Each structure stands twice: as C-alpha cells, then as structure tokens.
Description:
Distance between the termini: 51 Å
Radius of gyration: 30 Å
Number of helices: 8
Largest sheet: 8 strands, antiparallel
Structural class: mainly beta
Strand content: 35-45%
Number of domains: 2
Amino acid sequence: MKFIPHCLAGFLILLSFFPACNDPTIIGSELLDEDQFDLGYTDTVTLRAYTVREDSVLTYSPTFSEQLGNYLVGKIEDPVFGTCFASLVAQFRLLQGQDPSPPFELGELDSIVLILPWNPDGVYGDTNQVYSFQVFELAEALDNEKTYYSNEAFPDKGMLIGQADLIPRPLDSVSFIPPDAKPGDPIKIVPQLRIRLDEAFAQAFFQTDSMNFESDSAFLAFFHGLVIRADVPNPGMVGFDLQNVFGGLTVYYHQDTNFHQYTFPIDDNSVKAVRFEHDYSNSEVATFLDDPAAGDSVLFLQGMSGVNAVVEFPHIESLQGLIINKAELVAQIVEHSASPKIAPPDQLVVREIQEDGTIEDIEDFLIADRVTSGNQGFALLFGGDLQENDTYRMNISGHLQKMIAGEVSNKLLITVFAKAEKGTHTVIGGPGHSLRPLKLELRFTRF
C-alpha cells in the first residue's frame, strides 16, 4: 500500500525539473501555427438544374438478379406529367421436372386462364375504382438471352383474346372453385388477377398438334407469349409479381369425369418485360423540359421511363483546396401528385452524367449498396429516402471530392430509385425556389 505514494512523490519531484512544461503556449506552439485547420459549412454552392426526358430503362435482363420485382400495367392521364402507358409482355414455358407434353389430345377443354399474382407494394393510384385490362397474343418470338429496354416494341396479332374490368384487390386472397370441386366448395389462393381467355383462341391452343408441346423450343415457336395492357385510362398503375410461382397460363380440361389442369409457368427462364410510353403534350412538365431557366424554380421526377432532373455545378473549381467532410444534395417536395393516391417516390438516387453522356452510379451509392443489407442500412449511408418533412437527402461526399479534383464530370442526374418498378412521381424545388430550394449542404475542412 506504500508503493503508490512513493511513486507519486517521485513523479512530482521529476516534474519540478520541467517547469516550462506547464505552459501550453510553449510546447508545440510552432506546430499549432502550421497545422491549424478551419472547419466550415455552406449551403450556397451555385447549382444549375433542369428537367430532362428519360431515353429508356432496363426492363428485362438474362441475369436473374437484374430482373424486376414489380411489373407495371396501366394508363394514367395526369395534368402535370401527361399520359403514361405501361404494357407487360410475358413468355410461358413447359413445366420442368415432369413429362413436358400435356395429354390434351385425350381430353376436352373447359377454359384457359391467365394468372398474374398482384404485387401489393407495387400499386399506384386509387384501387377503389374500376380498372380495365386487355390481353393480346404476341406476334414475334422473345429471346431470353437478349436485354430488353422500355422502348422496345412488342407487336401483337391484333385480336383481343381476353379482357377484365374490375376493382383491384392486391391484398385479398381469391376464392376459386376448381373444375373438380364440389359445388359451393371454393378454395383460397394468393391475390391474383385471373383473366379467362377467348374461347376461339383457347380451342385453337388446346387442339394444336401435340408436337408443339414436346419441348420448350417447339412450344415457344408455336406460342410466343402474351401482351397485357390498358387501352383506356385507368385511375392508376397496378403491379404484378412475376417471380411468384403462381403466375402462368392454366389450361383446365377433363377426360370423361376426371378434371385436370396444366399450367404453363412464367419461370426464371421466361422473358417478362415492360414497355413504357410517355406523352407530355399539353402537360405542365412540357414547358419545363430541357430549360435551365424554368428548372431554377421547379423540377419534375417520375418513375417508369419518365423525367429526371439534371444538376450541374458550374463553379466547382471554387471549392479547390477543400477536404469534403460531408456533402448532401437536398431535394424538397413542393407539389404533390394531382392524381389521387399516387404517393411521391420513397427513394431518390443520384448518378453521374459522364462527358460522353453515359450514366453511371456514383461511388457513394455503390459503397452503400455494397456494404449494407436492406433499405435501412442503405438509407443511413447514402440517404435518398423520403423523410417526414417531404425532403430527400443524398450523400455525395466522395463523388464531390472527385468532382473538385477534376476526376469526374460536374453533372449529376437525380432519378427515382428502381424507377422501372415505380409508377410514382413528384415535383421538387429548383435551386432558385424561394421556400424549398434544391441545395448542397457542405461541411468541409480548409487547411
């Protein structure tokens, strides 16, 4: 117990030989003068912004991980964003893991039904109103090794083979009575759109040569697939989950008193893609396209293959000599949708417009996407999620440092995240908006 006080006494004696050490202005004073740094903040960096059309977006890739999680169908007429049209194409295949040839020649047809499972998270608009859907047969074959974009044309044979007018129920299971069920004995199945196809088409399909069902290649040469679209305006866009195993084309038939069904599935090898068309004639957004002066006040953002916003940093060289601690591009909603029940995008992202016009993901986005799992972790690192005050904050710290160094262009693109799956839109303030401007919030160190 006597060791501590003896050591303490020795330490105090030692300190007495260095009285100058108690003066903080002496030790390292010359180092402090040379290495002192200045922490700063600004939100007045000059921005130039305007609304631009989207050329096209990817809607089918042979790589399964790049395929869509939501397939939109609908036609919306909106006073701000014009007319938006989404049509779905789907390829069907033979069942795998069993005798591929269905024994149709031994039976009699009851019906053929197109089954598309709803995606309850992919519906945009008023689902208390009636929606109308039409079905056509594809005129040309689809190639599952090809990449399809939203501006791809998918010709059909011109004859309507199915139609449904209904109120969507994406959250409600469907009561279904199979042909072999007892009267009044329905079963519950996952929420889905079911469209019974035209009798003439169904009979021709059912009675075709059995050789057409002997292999996938033979079947795909015989039947190219279907187009599902809305030829009349609907009160929104609906979404389908085509990764769901319940999707397909089901043939109901019987042999004597025995009832059967055979489903041609939409499987992992099937092409499923969406065509988007946007007509901005007589819409509010039309007067703002490609106009930096107009974009100073408001900017327009839209899912599907709709409009984006370009942001330029015309005086980026003025930031040379700064180390970026944090840079957030802040976008604020100024106008909600004119279409009932279409919510604003839940997530925005920022991409780089390179000198040759190609679009690439920025480093900050890629890092957040690589090191996080789930939306919550991604939002913490990159941001871009819609906050309670109708604001989006996107982290561009790493990219801005590269922009200052001249390693990347000074142009960015603000776009809806996973926009090919989203039927949403919003209007944000431009850099000159008086109340809710687009701005860069910058925290930096100046040496």
